[in-house]
Automatic annotation (TrEMBL):
Organism: Oryzias latipes
Database matches in Gene3D superfamilies: 2.60.120.200
Protein name per Swiss-Prot or TrEMBL: Laminin G domain-containing protein
Domain Laminin G: from-to ranges: 1-141, 151-343
InterPro entries (UniProt xref): ConA-like_dom_sf, Laminin_G, Neurexin-related_CASP
One Pfam entry name: Laminin_G_2
Domain of life per record: Eukaryota
Length: 345
């Protein structure tokens, strides 16, 4: 889901976005905003390519998906021209501040042949930086956008991460995955989720061992340390973090460790995104303020692979990601012996 196209004016605008698998057009030519949605039977969030055509002729708006099932809208007069003083945007708002934008998110996925009034907006994007700007855009279509929950996710840089929707922990919550760190002994964040007033839950790798931290942002914090060294064997480690009302427990391979929670830590409602493999810039500041030592030492991202990810027993992964950075499907990373390898199955 997210914003696909925006022709932005001071008051006039034309906005095309994907919401829960359906397209929505919002349009204001100066005589009031109107909206139009694609047909109910067409679901676009299916990992397939789709063609979209939007025509504006006088009062008439026609939205067509895959060359059939057109949706129609008639705009009120007398204004029929679209004034776009702010320019044209594809895939996001680029920080544009207009009241008509609402809470439109950037689009995650691939687009090709984006044509507006006979102009190909994606042609030679990198060549015309004087009047075209890009942010977190790459040429081609990454395999992560056709990935499923069964695919392995690789984290290959110090800034790599994926962001999932918030982790709902009411009375208890469970996070599970298989973890395969790189052979290079580095610290890093495996999981991080923030709560209100500085509260958080995190999984870090410190000196080869997993460390669970639960804090309330007011000085109370509990840490749970595993004895298993995940860098001692180049293999997969199944891990499970179980948050209970009065305790936390971590299972890694055959090891199980537990810790009781103080009264101050028994209720930490989580509200922020669920970060896996690393953090964005804002979360790095939060985690640093929380005293997470792997972040303080500069090891914000975990280098390695995750697979079989489950949140509260439900399978999840790249299809549910709201943001991803420097990740690969299957993942290739560099061992200390300077060989390139993919994560094993």
């Amino acid at each position: 889901m997210g914003l696909l196209f925006l022709a932005a004016g001071n008051k006039d605008f034309l906005l095309l976005e994907l919401i829960s698998g359906r397209l929505q057009v919002r349009l204001d030519l100066g005589s009031g905003e109107r909206s139009l949605r694609s047909a109910r039977g067409l679901h676009l969030s299916d990992l397939e390519w789709h063609t979209v055509q939007l025509n504006h002729t006088q009062n008439n708006i026609v939205l067509t998906v895959d060359q059939h099932s057109p949706s129609n809208l008639r705009m009120p007069g007398p204004d029929l021209e679209l004034n776009i003083e702010e320019g044209v945007l594809v895939g996001g708002t680029a920080g544009l501040n207009q009241s008509y934008l609402g809470i439109s998110n950037g689009f995650r996925g691939c687009m090709d042949k984006v044509v507006f009034n006979d102009r190909d907006l994606l042609s030679n994007v990198q060549l015309y930086s004087g009047y075209k700007s890009t942010h977190e855009v790459s040429m081609g279509c990454s395999s992560q956008f056709s990935a499923t929950e069964e695919d392995t996710i690789g984290f290959s840089s110090s800034k790599a991460f994926i962001s999932l929707p918030p982790w709902e922990v009411l009375q208890e919550g469970v996070f599970e995955c298989d973890l395969h760190p790189s052979a290079k002994a580095e610290s890093g964040v495996v999981l991080y989720s923030s709560g209100y007033e500085g509260g958080f839950v995190a999984i870090e790798i410190r000196d080869g061992h997993l460390v669970i931290s639960v804090g309330n942002g007011k000085g109370s914090k509990t840490e749970l340390h595993s004895l298993t060294n995940v860098h001692s064997n180049h293999t997969w480690y199944p891990i499970q973090l179980h948050l209970l009302p009065h305790s936390i427990q971590l299972k890694i391979d055959k090891e199980l460790v537990k810790a009781s929670l103080s009264q101050e830590l028994k209720v930490i409602p989580l509200k922020g995104p669920l970060f896996l493999g690393g953090l964005n810039e804002k979360a790095v500041v939060e985690a640093n303020d929380s005293g997470m030592s792997s972040v303080a030492s500069g090891g914000a991202s975990f280098t390695g692979c995750l697979k079989n990810i489950k949140v509260n027993t439900k399978r999840t992964g790249l299809p549910q990601a709201t943001i991803s950075k420097d990740v690969n499907v299957g993942f290739i990373f560099r061992f200390h012996v300077l060989r390139l390898n993919a994560c094993p199955h």
